[in-house]
Protein: ABC transporter ATP-binding protein
Amino acid sequence: EDPLLEISDLRTHFFTREGTVRAVDGVSLTVPRGKTVCVVGESGCGKSVTARSVLGLVDEPGRIVSGEIWWRRRGQEPVNLAQLGPRSEEMRRVRGGEISMVFQEPMASLSPMYTIGDQLVEAIRMHLPLTQEQARERATDLLRRAGIPRAEERLDAYSFQLSGGMCQRVMIAIALAADPALLIADEPTTALDVTTQARIIDLLRDLQAETGMSVLFITHDLGVVAEIADEVVVMYLGTVVERGGVDEIFHDPKHPYTNALLGSIPRMGAGAGRRLATIRGNVPHPSDRPAGCPFHPRCDAAIGGVCDVSDPPHIVFGEARSVRCVLHDDVHRSSAAEVRA
Ligand code: SF4
Ligand code: MG
Structure:
């Protein structure tokens, strides 16, 4: 693996009047150059906060309390983004230029006051030394690459004249304005209908192949993961519970939570009569984290006296393959057997 982004033991906490919310609590993950890594988990598990931490976009009263976020430009010393001020010059160079981000609500991300062309040209000229005319040419080209028909005319349109799917294509075009090395996409298709979703996923896959950029894709939808991921990071309550290649996650899931998520993917052609599995219970609030394994109240395999007491061991099988669960640890497993006996 040739890491482009390496997050190591990141903790991003929110200091609220009600107490400390450990939204991200010890997350490690790597995005290799030219690969797509999907972060998957139910809402509230810290996926978005992890992504926002990378770009110094954590809102008050949150802040990164520890950990490292290494940004490895080719041929240069790595930079720890966790140490950069959110408004520092270096962070500004990274944000939008080297790493850009697409969000769930494309309409909300575009200004209704300016044309699509104005916003694209501005994004381009912020990062590239081009004249107005050159930037407009690049804008047209980007819209075309984002699959927008009649791209030249669309430059003069306003966001409210476009559908949600078209707006998301515009956002993707803006995100690509400066040829980023990494695109972070936070649930970019969640607000769209199924057909549009599939088209946007195809587009991102094509653009990734064409540009060689890396993608960090955040989603709660394993169907999307199957379509786009090279590697998968499964998160639960602010921690990474399993990591693996996309085939390993789908064909050899090791964590009970991954298994439960897989059981809850709607299957095409499953038939109207077939009930879909769901995970029992809800994700607890991060300020109310259960002791021991955070998944134990919902886990069918939980071992009483072990899972509700001690932190699950982190078992590493390989560079990008690991799981945080007592069931995969020989030492703990034998002591667990004693507890049960
Ligand atoms: Fe379930 Fe225990 Fe594994 Fe947690 S550590 S996932 S509770 S078996
Ligand atoms: Mg989110």
Summary: The CA atoms of residues 161 and 167 lie 9 Å apart. The mean pLDDT is 91. Residues 194-211 form the longest helix (18 residues).
